Amino acid sequence: MSASRTVICLLRNDLRLHDNEVFHWAQRNADHIIPLYCFDPRHYQGTYHFNFPKTGPFRLRFLLDSVKDLRATLRKRGSTLLVRQGKPEDVVSDLIQQLGSVTAVAFHEEVASEERNVEKKLKAICCQNKVKVQTFWGSTLYHRDDLPFTHIGGLPDVYTQFRKVVEGQSRVRPVLSTPAQVKSLPVGLEEGTIPTFEGLGQTEPVEDCRSVFPCRGGETEALARLKHYFWDTNAVAAYKETRNGMIGVDYSTKFSPWLALGCISPRYIYEQIKKYEAERTANQSTYWVIFELLWRDYFKFVGLKYGNRIFHMNGLQDKHVSWKTDMTLFNAWKEGRTGVPFVDANMRELALTGFMSNRGRQNVASFLTKDLGLDWRQGAEWFEYLLVDHDVCSNYGNWLYSAGIGNDPRENRKFNMIKQGLDYDNNSGPPAKGRKGSSYTPRQHKDRGIDFYFSNKKSF
Q1: What is the pLDDT of residues 80-135, one digit of tens each?
Q2: pTM over 0.70
Q3: Model confidence over 23-72: pLDDT tens digits?
């Protein structure tokens, strides 16, 4: 009788059972599966340049929710989630030594350097112990291997070019089946305690009833949110018209926090959109959800193409800008004390809830970089600390874009804060005659959305 085969499924930003190739592969190649999540101490230290806390209270609460939810899901299917505090490479090494039956370690590959360094260390440990490493790509809508470029270096530097080529020449892979039962753990393994806020050096955040994201983390909540937004309310059919809103839960999908931790698969969202279009309605709004998922893909692939340049002061274009580091100005920005009502309202919302609308993010980033002239990395690292939906590639990609040193073919662009405040949140400034309340979403016109900027020649 052959020895039992044990596969460690190392989970990081893929905290789901549905459409998860790590589980899918392990189910076919193991007698025992160890689903493992490690609270890596490096995630609870300071940010690289300005030493802000790296994982803030809102993201941590969402993560703890997600870990608890995945453990509960696995328990219903004959397994559980092993939780450890420690560096993944150390924890995996200890498990290999302890068990003696580990035949493979499986995980999804990540994009940014810190995560890839962990992967290198894991591969070295597995090589030393003659353990197979099985890696997958599972964080994007379109698979990395299905891109219509011979090499990632051929990725266009303009999103529209990328989108048109991918939509025309690639396909979205089908969603993988969810196992009804997950193979059991080896005998004798303790599942481990999920840490507390205090144990990770954080204070639990206070709930704010005004939050537009009063949602909990986890796959269960993510799937319920999609059902609500698509099938229960049909809100998705008006997404393009409402997505620049500010107030309420349903002006946008709010999928981004669950996507950031992999609690929901972008392919599953796509599959449900296609189903909705076939059964209910297909319009610009349903397409626009896919359009936004493609933006998320694009920033991931930009991270692959440019590596650590997404973190460099001079950005992807190696453009030299005289950024300031003025902590008095920065503190006024982060605390909502700039004196510009629209900026201040958004920054206070972020501080109290860990969330900010897409429209708000574009404006406060433009204000920090173009009006205050502050180092864009201060803003990016502050967002990294506070945003419940922080995703390294989307966050840094968007900040580079706002700073004018990223994927952006246009020059001299910045938001007009006064007009933006009047258009999108008229309660944050002087009342506009005839306007509705703060939940009002303006009608779309040719200058709104992603193009709503002004240059030296034109002011909207």
Answers
A1: 999 999 999 999 999 999 999 999 999 999 999 999 999 999 999 999 999 999 99
A2: yes
A3: 999 999 999 999 999 999 999 999 999 999 999 999 999 999 999 999 99
Identify residue 129 by its one-letter amino acid code.
Answer: N
